[in-house]
Amino acid sequence: MDNGSSKDQFLSHMVSEMQIPLKAVLKLSESLLKNSYDANNREQYLKLIHNSAKNIDNIIKDVSDISSIQNGTFSINITKINLMEFLSQNFELFRLKAKEKSLRFSIKFGKNLPKFIDTDENRLSQVISNLLTNAIKFTEKEGSVKLEVVFDTQNSLLKVYVDDNGIGIPDSKKENIFKPFIRDKSNVNFEDTRTGLGLFISLSIIELLNGKIGFESKQGQGSTFHFEIPVKFEN
Hints:
Blueprint: H1 4-33, H2 42-71, E1 79-82, H3 83-91, H4 93-100, E2 104-109, E3 116-119, H5 121-137, E4 144-152, E5 157-164, H6 171-174, H7 198-208, E6 212-218, E7 222-230, E8 233-234
Parallel strand pairs: 2-4
Antiparallel strand pairs: 1-3, 3-8, 4-5, 5-7, 6-7
Helix pairs in contact: 1-2, 5-7
């Protein structure tokens, strides 16, 4: 952060973010300890505690990332990865998350995807996961979310698209969408694992990978977030 005021704002925001899941953990665990709950709801209570703890863990990770971004130590580790293995192992989980919300979820791969690419596997997964999490979060029941991955062989570009027909983004918020802490506060709940830092961190990762990230969105119709990164590849 550039100055004391910015640091205070950041810390205040993080304290606020931590309060929601911490209150959930305390309230639900207290009910379990006192046995003041319906036995039929025990599994639901444990699930909410788990999700709240996961939320806290995600907040800590995001704080660590943004701290590294601000002090210039945020790093990229390029290795050779099997692209299809990476895609199949990392994102099928989101099919289950979509199913829990009664959403249609599809994954489409281009026909000319290379077998191997050189990139940062963890950071690439982080960006795609951030975009899919947002798409599922802001798409209502019976809606659809699609992940599409294609490869531009001529320019050695990996291109990723995350499309949804959710609530979309108002024109008034588009300019600041990649700034930290931008999110719809009305959607915050015990199971919300977003801190408002995901898109800012994703932008930072894509820029470090010498790529570009952008989006198109219409309020009430949905959004498409997309990015491209240059990669070395082998078939």
